[in-house]
Amino acid sequence: MKILILGANGFIGSHLSEAILNHTDWEIDALDLSQDKLGASVGRKRFHLKLGDMTQEKDWITEHIKQCDVVLPLVAIATPATYVQQPLRVFELDFEANLAIVRQCVTFKKRIIFPSTSEVYGMCTDTAFDEESSHLVTGPIHKERWIYSTSKQLLDRIIYAYGKHDGLSYTLFRPFNWFGPGQDTIFNPKPGGSRVITQFIGNVLRGEDITLVNGGAQQRCFTYIQDGIAALIKIIENKANHAEQQIFNIGNPFENISIRQVAEALVTLMKQYPKYTEKVNQTKLMDMSATEYYGAGYQDVMLRVPSIKRAEEKLGWKPKVDFMTGLKKTLDFYLA
Ligand code: UGA
């Protein structure tokens, strides 16, 4: 099988590429702006990397969509602070650039595995979000945070419609707060410049306090990257066509924890690294309002729990890595 990965140097793309090369005989054509996260994948015989911008390399992309069996367009802005500060950049890249890829998959009859997001459920009040029955609930237009959620939602709807009316072969997967080594850079000093775990690690390393937005009572189901990748491999494999025209929540409902608990766990674990004990001992947890931290265009999700029934039944997948184990592995990576 030949797989085209756009955004192979991203958090998901880099882990996926490594897993494919280590555990399958599949071949990868890859595109990204840089290769710093790709480590040993670069130079492997079945990994063909082109350095370039997906919005510029249109001919290369068309050629390679024609040649591959499956397309994974993983290029996207995924940091909430950017949704609020640069909503049009999110629309242009996450929506417009990816719509062009979806359309080419329709034209050339290629299977597409598309990253939807837990964010499409928005402020849904279900105790566990179901792919086929939960409502997708967002806020008013001036709450710009929702441009990411609604861009992804519309792409989900477009892909679904192409599937129904033009026979597009697709799978939509919805990551729920995947985390792990190589997620974001810990050197971004901007508040909200990276997602919460890397943000907090960076805070401690820079000698800053950890900011708990609105007190940190909001909860997330943190999913270790290795579990997410295991699900993706099963989706690509598509045994007995079980992933065909399906939507899957890929998250860890057993690790539903508050942001305050994340900060506390991080502080506890970081104390075990002698080089950082002093810095951690100086770190305080500070509350700040969401408006002060992100701006007026932000709105939060208080509870976000996936139902993973569908992934369990159709893919035979279940998360295996608990939060503390995943966090320890993440710290080993960033602090080594
Ligand atoms: C994320 C991002 O939108 C995407 O990466 C992704 O599609 C999706 O959710 C997902 O991974 O499931 P969110 O969970 O809100 O959204 O992103 P984080 O930036 O990791 O924030 C998590 C929580 O921590 C938020 O409630 C935020 O307010 C809080 N936070 C963040 C703090 O309390 N302090 C900080 O310094 C940063």
Describe this structure in words.
It is built from twelve helices and 13 strands. It is globular. The protein has a domain at 76-178 and 225-252 and 305-319: NAD(P)-binding Rossmann-like Domain (Rossmann fold, 3-Layer(aba) Sandwich), CATH 3.40.50.720. The strands form four sheets. It has a seven-stranded parallel β-sheet, with helices on both faces. Strands 7-10 form a two-stranded parallel sheet. It has helices spanning 11-23, 58-67, 80-85, 87-107, 146-166, 196-205, 225-237, 259-270, 277-282, 290-294, 309-315, 323-335, and strands spanning 2-6, 27-32, 47-51, 70-73, 111-115, 170-175, 178-179, 210-213, 219-221, 223-224, 246-250, 256-258, 285-288. With 336 residues, the protein is of the alpha/beta class. The protein binds uridine-5'-diphosphate-glucuronic acid (UGA).
Give the SSE layout.
Elements lengths: L1 E5 L4 H13 L3 E6 L14 E5 L6 H10 L2 E4 L6 H6 L1 H21 L3 E5 L30 H21 L3 E6 L2 E2 L16 H10 L4 E4 L5 E3 L1 E2 H13 L8 E5 L5 E3 H12 L6 H6 L2 E4 L1 H5 L14 H7 L7 H13 L1
Parallel strand pairs: 1-2, 1-4, 2-3, 4-5, 5-6, 6-11, 7-10, 8-13
Antiparallel strand pairs: 9-12
Helix pairs in contact: 1-7, 4-5, 6-8, 8-12
The structure holds uridine-5'-diphosphate-glucuronic acid.
Uridine-5'-diphosphate-glucuronic acid binds next to α6 and β8.
Tell me the fraction of residues in β-strands, as a range. 15-25%
Class derived from helix and strand content:
alpha/beta
What Rg do the Cα atoms give? Answer: 19 Å
The helix tally amounts to 12
Mean pLDDT: 97
* CATH homologous superfamily placement of the domain at 76-178 and 225-252 and 305-319: NAD(P)-binding Rossmann-like Domain
What is the count of β-strands?
13
- What is the C-level CATH assignment of the domain at 76-178 and 225-252 and 305-319? Alpha Beta
Share of helix, binned: 40-55%
Order of strands across the main sheet: 3-2-1-4-5-6-11
Shape: globular
Level-2 CATH architecture of the domain at 76-178 and 225-252 and 305-319? 3-Layer(aba) Sandwich
CATH topology of the domain at 76-178 and 225-252 and 305-319: Rossmann fold
Low-confidence residue ranges:
none
Give the bound compounds.
Answer: uridine-5'-diphosphate-glucuronic acid
**End-to-end CA span:** 36 Å
Largest sheet: 7 strands, parallel
Order of helices and strands: EHEEHEHHEHEEHEEEHEEHHEHHH
